[in-house]
Design a protein that fits this description.
Blueprint: E1 3-9, E2 15-16, H1 17-24, H2 30-38, E3 42-44, E4 47-48, E5 54-55, E6 60-66, H3 72-76, E7 79-82, E8 86-91, H4 103-106, H5 118-125, E9 146-152, H6 155-166, E10 171-179, E11 186-190, E12 193-194, E13 203-204, E14 212-220, E15 224-231, H7 238-245, E16 266-274, E17 281-285, H8 290-301
Helix pairs in contact: 1-2
Length: about 300
């Protein structure tokens, strides 16, 4: 990743290194400054120091700040639809939506440090979104799930889309390839989801939050099935948890007992919502990715 070096000369009374960086760059939180220092991207007189290092008159602080996580052309390949109010992106499997460190919400530039994420791509290709809460994200997908994601470009659109997701007015369709063959070609899984005391993993739990998932079998093989999934609620890992709960875990889902595969076979195929500007219903579709299709064919061939 390309970096640009910025040199700052310290003058005045003794001050901590992290405090000095944050004072010179108001958009940098103290936590972000500490991360720069810990990662060796903020040097004092050419040497790595601790965040608590006390600067003295004449010390030179050099910041090596990342520029772009990826070129805009790479990002543009993910864009399926864009207008003045929103973006629709085809997220590839394996790409995290945002960094695990929540500091990126206060300091979007922090997303450029470490692993590439959808947020870092957005910050690089659409820097104006840095002024938006969470860079306009209104929902998320798991790292290993591919498919459609919506990103708001205005505050009005962000609030309208979030309201639709909250009130279950935005409708989602997923594709999931699972182990085993469901006994019926259609079904509704109604089982609460939560994190029980003493368990790290979210699961079906009688005291959890309500969660409902509908499915239709699209294709059956000897040992597997391809399903259309329509979640009626939006709990974390809901589809994966519910399918594992009924004995048909998603292929490639290591966390919930899915059989081994090149990728997790869960794909956000379609989102239907009311456009925040016109109120008209709009559908964005993402076809089955080539690597999903290839993995599914390999699974069937290996039966």
């Amino acid at each position: 990743m390309a970096k640009t070096a910025y040199k700052l000369m310290f003058t005045g009374q003794i001050k901590r290194l992290d405090a000095f960086i944050s004072s010179r760059h108001e958009e940098f939180s103290r936590e972000f400054s500490k991360k720069l220092i810990a990662d060796g991207l903020a040097l004092v007189n050419g040497k790595k120091r601790k965040p608590s290092h006390l600067l003295k008159e004449g010390d030179q602080v050099t910041l090596h700040l990342p520029e772009r996580a990826a070129g805009p052309l790479e990002f543009e390949k993910l864009v399926m639809y864009e207008d003045s109010s929103l973006l629709a992106i085809a997220k590839p499997a394996g790409l995290c939506v945002h960094p695990t460190d929540s500091n990126w919400e206060r300091t979007p530039r922090a997303s450029l440090l470490g692993e590439e994420t959808l947020v870092s791509l957005l910050f690089s290709a659409r820097p104006e979104l840095a002024a938006m809460a969470r860079l306009g994200l209104v929902h998320r997908l798991d790292r290993d799930t591919s498919g459609v994601m919506l990103v708001a470009k205005t505050e009005t659109a962000r609030m309208a889309l979030m309201e639709q997701f909250r009130d279950r007015l935005a409708k989602k369709l997923y594709l999931a390839a699972v182990s085993g063959r469901p006994a019926k070609d259609t079904g509704i899984i109604d089982a609460p989801i939560g994190r029980a005391s003493g368990f790290k993993k979210i699961k079906v739990w009688e005291y959890g939050r309500d969660a409902v998932t509908e499915f239709i079998v699209k294709e059956k093989t000897k040992k597997h099935a391809l399903l259309d999934i329509r979640p009626q609620t939006g709990r974390t890992n809901q589809i994966r948890i519910h399918l594992a709960y009924i004995g048909h875990p998603v292929i490639g889902d290591k966390l919930y007992g899915g059989e081994s595969a090149a990728r997790m076979l869960l794909h956000s195929a379609k989102i239907t919502f009311s456009h925040p500007d016109t109120g008209k219903r709009k559908t964005i579709s993402a076809p089955m990715p080539p690597e999903f299709k290839k993995t599914w064919e390999e699974v069937k061939a290996g039966e």
